[in-house]
Amino acid sequence: MSLLITPPRTTETAGGPWPATARFGADGHAEVGGVDLMEVAGRFGTPAYVMDEADVRLRCRAYRAALPRAEIAYAAKAFWCRAMAAWVRSEGLALDVCSAGELAVARAAGFPADRIILHGNAKTPAELRAAVDERVGRIVVDDLAEINRLAALVPAGWRQKVLVRVIPDIEAGAHAAIRTGGEDHKFGLSIAAGVAREAVDRILRQPRLELVGLHCHLGSQIAAAEPYEQSARVLVEQLARIRDAHGVTLPQLDLGGGHAIAYTSGQTGLPPALLTSLATTVERRCAGIGLPAPRLTVEPGRAVAGPAGVTLYRVIAVKKGLRRTYVAVDGGMSDNPRPAMYGSRYEMRMIGRATHEGERDFTVVGHHCESGDTLAEAAALPADIRPGDVLAVAATGAYNHSMASTYNMNGRPPVVAVSRGKARLVVRREGLDDLLRRDVGL
């Protein structure tokens, strides 16, 4: 069922990296989805992930409006649970999964198999079997050996649709660890080395595989449309070469995702409206070489889930050092590893009480036994921040819950969905019993 979305009534609408329904008051009041965040902290504990359903739906609709003839496939790796599956399904999106686990969640939530795309540079035989058994819509081939392996799993009388992931040799992305479109990365098949051409040849010789298009993915946190337009031109040229070599016109072109979001008020993301030019680029290039325009697919993940999320922490200690003052919270790198991995910066606010003190810079750290467990350097927070205060951190909807760990045997936080003044638990907190259940003993 679709959610009716109305603009929030605000004393101060946060904007920037905060969810669409976030609002803050001078007295420390903070709410998302019409729900008081201090009530969430009290009811569900901290740390806790809060997801704004309205924000997710608004972003799904923005993509569909910007690219009305394209397929919008949500990238599940950004944030995934059965509630999220229900939201993106009801908004008419397709789905990109990259593991048997993500596929299992999708199917448990009733997500239609024909709207699912399976990715992965090293899919296991079990994952390929699961995808074939579920009859997912498309499987992205990322390795030559995968072709025969996959074909052997497809039952008689059935043809599995596949895409070939190619390397456009375009470097884009905010950090070296999240760039995937160049020749020196583990993803995709090289056009320059002829491996992509060999994959196409092999697939077309397999009677149980149906090649329907090409795929690429440039990286993550890309804040401009130009790299996507460049990759579109490269891939359209490859479609033309396949037509000329084999007499086959492929009907699909998947340009992946990686669209940037704002993590702080000083940053800008990549609004879906700026991607409208992609369809025009593809259509014009195809027209110029006499090729029917393929159906375009884009795969936003972070851009749908990221700004919808807020993480709540409770301050445990405030410790003054020689050069800096540390604010230690009850979470850290086990629930948000991105600062340690990528040097990512986040915007945070103290909520729950009024303060008449000015702001000063603090180093916000977690409670793990790791010197790199730092959530924010030079975070501007009230000078009178003290143990028991609650911090809200913006734009944590993507790659926080999905990359969380149990480091130091800390259970992973719950996910609380908020919508129209109500909060509900969609993923429960991982407790000590959960941690002990997997330990089979001596």
Characterize the biggest β-sheet.
9 strands, mixed
Q: What is the CA-atom radius of gyration, in angstroms?
A: 23 Å
Shape: elongated
Oligomer: single chain
- Give the number of helices: 12
Mean pLDDT, all residues: 93
**Would you identify the regions where 5 or more consecutive residues have pLDDT less than 50?**
6-10, 177-182
Class derived from helix and strand content? alpha/beta
Question: What can you tell me about this protein's structure?
Answer:
This protein is of the alpha/beta class and 442 residues long. Helix content is 27%, strand content 24%. The longest helix has 21 residues, at 226-246. The protein is elongated and about 70 Å long.
Summarize the structure.
By secondary structure, the protein is of the alpha/beta class. The chain is built from twelve helices and 21 strands.
Features:
442 residues, alpha/beta, 9-stranded mixed beta sheet, 8-stranded parallel barrel, 24% strand, elongated
Which helices and strands appear, and what pairs or packs with what?
Layout: E1 23-24, E2 30-32, E3 35-36, H1 37-44, E4 48-52, H2 53-66, E5 71-75, H3 82-90, E6 94-97, H4 100-108, E7 116-118, H5 125-134, E8 138-141, H6 144-153, E9 160-167, E10 189-190, H7 195-204, E11 209-215, H8 226-246, E12 252-254, H9 276-288, E13 295-298, H10 302-305, E14 309-320, E15 325-329, H11 338-342, E16 348-351, E17 359-365, E18 374-382, E19 390-394, E20 415-419, E21 422-427, H12 432-437
Parallel strand pairs: 4-20, 5-6, 5-13, 6-7, 7-8, 8-9, 9-10, 9-11, 11-12, 12-13, 15-17
Antiparallel strand pairs: 1-2, 2-3, 4-14, 14-15, 14-19, 16-19, 17-18, 20-21
Helix pairs in contact: 8-9
